[in-house]
Structures are given as structure tokens and as C-alpha cells.
Amino acid sequence: MNYWLMKSEPDTFSLEHLKKMPKMTSPWDGVRNYQARNFMRDEMRKGDLILFYHSSCPVPGCAGVAQVVRESYPDPSAFDKNSPYYDPKSSMDAPRWMMVDIQYKSSFNQVISLKRMREEPKLAQMKILQKGCRLSITPITKSEFDYICSMDQA
DNA sequence: GCCAACGTTGGC
DNA sequence: GCCAACGTTGGC
After folding, report:
1. pLDDT at position A106 over 70
2. Residue A138 CA to C1 C1' — how many Å?
3. What pLDDT, in 10s, does the model give residues A82-103?
4. Angle at alpha carbon of residue A87, lines to A82 and A92, rounded to 5°
5. Shortest CA distance to A16 belongs to which of A111, A113, A104, A101?
6. Nucleotide nearest to A134 (CA to C1')
7. With bands split at pLDDT 50, 70 and 90, how would you rate the model's confidence at A154?
8. Taking a C-beta distance cutoff of 8 angstroms, is the pair A119, A151 a contact?
9. Cβ of A114: how many Cβ atoms within 10 Å?
10. How confident is the model at residue A38 (pLDDT cuts 50, 70, 90)?
11. Which of chain A's termini has less CB crowding within 10 Å, N or C?
């Protein structure tokens, strides 16, 4: 099993939005970055656990946990001319963009802020903390995942 | 709103 | 294939 951190802007799609969806599942569409696509296409497996991270908001940080429930398939928003994620270079025959479906698991009692994460030497290797990292999906280790979950009790 | 950092594009 | 220009991300 793998562990991931996935960023979302809560104004657009928050963990609460995911929780309120029927069946608490949602397609993770609109990713238009090759590295992030490759992670979804090649490495994400059903059952993988996800730290759901809120970015571009008053308190950026980890809001809770979600899980991969469907492995990668073509992102239909790339075919939709009316979608902001439309990409004319992606076709049904040769889909360029892939996505997965994720499901709500749990919310932390309080957001584990980016500020707190930076103060933890054990988390220093996380890509999200590296200067200039803009990747919306990054792999994390089980120990990083577990450690952040444990910070919720502290 | 600013701006550093990064990915993508496109001319050559 | 290089690289300058551009657009986007995201913390502050």
C-alpha cells in the first residue's frame, strides 16, 4: 500500500465537500500536470491512503484522510469543451489525462497546519515542505502519514 | 496583491 | 534540442 498527499483549494473542493458527496466519493479530475498524472496512472492503487491538504487558504495544512477507491481511468473533463479543464490534445482514443476516484475517510480534529509540519524534523523530507514544490500529488512514507495522524492528538 | 519558483510553450 | 517568455501555483 502507498501513501499520498493531495492538495486542493478548499474554496473549490474541500474535504467537507468530499464528505458531503453521495457515497462520499469523488473523481479527482482536472489534474493537468504530467508528474501528478503519472503518479495516478502508474502508482496509485485501490486502498491507498491520502492526506487531504488544503492550500491557498487562511490556514494551509492537512485536513484529514481519504482513500483511493477506483484506479486510474481517462479524465472526461479533458473531452468536455465547456469544462475549464478541456484539453483539445486529449482524445477518447488517446486520452492524455488520467484520474482516480477517492473516498472520504476521516477529518482531523483540527487542521495540521503547514506551520506545524515545518516545525517537525521527522517531516523535513516531505516534498510539500521543499522550497517551490507545486506538485498537487506527492508520495509520502507510511511513517510520515502515521506521524501527521498522531499530531492530531497532540 | 506580491513574488519566487516552477512547468509548458513555441520560435529558432 | 535550446531557452526565453509566459502562465500558474501557493505561501505570505
Report:
1. yes
2. 29
3. 888 999 888 888 899 999 999 9
4. 95
5. A104
6. C9
7. low
8. no
9. 17
10. very high
11. C
